[in-house]
Amino acid sequence: YVQLKTRIKNAIIDGAYPYGAQIPSEIEYEKKYGVSRITVRRAISDLEKEGYVVRSRGKGTHVIYNHTIKESFSRIRSFTEEMKAAHLEPGTSFVEVKEEAVPSDGATAFGIEPGTRLVCVSRVRTANHKPIVYFKTYFAKGLNAPLDPEAYGESLYYWLNERGIRQPERALENFKAVNASKAIADKLEIRENDAVLVRTRFGYNKKNEMIEYTLAYYRGDTYSFTVEKKKKKKEDLLLFFRT
Fold this sequence. Notes:
The protein is an alpha+beta fold.
């Protein structure tokens, strides 16, 4: 039953049985693998306890596992780095570069007048060719960001590092859940009003100058964030007070 459970579990994780799909019946598994009904029931029962499937009388067994890309807040990383760490192929399905007015909270953080136009790089980033997040990144005027989409390549942080500007050393981030507008839904290939997670990043360099303001709209069905908190050790506190 452990071997059968592992086979079904791997098929679910790999996407052979996506979220909402009905997996084969107990009889089908019996015939396919030459095992008893008890073995099949035990395997499926374990998968149900682990949150991969749910059984409904008269309706069969359906997948409730929804694969999400998990990101930790341990350090600042580009989307390309995040996808490679998750063993996924990063890509870009849409890119547009133009000058447009930065949102009011971004203008305040940059220390510029509301309505000031900055270079904005809009992109839809993909993982294994599936739209994951829609980015709108505004760069500080002093960076002289070009309007040519081909100048940036896959990673904006790689572009910054190549120019000697370096990617942000510090970032403040806010999160909120919203319902997708039609424009955002179309870009992420989801339905209008589906849930999306909006991540607002204020990125600063070593001199504590803000160089980046980014709005990122993540598909709610494919992304999750992890925050790890640790209790400070006694020696850490002693070091703090000595300083």
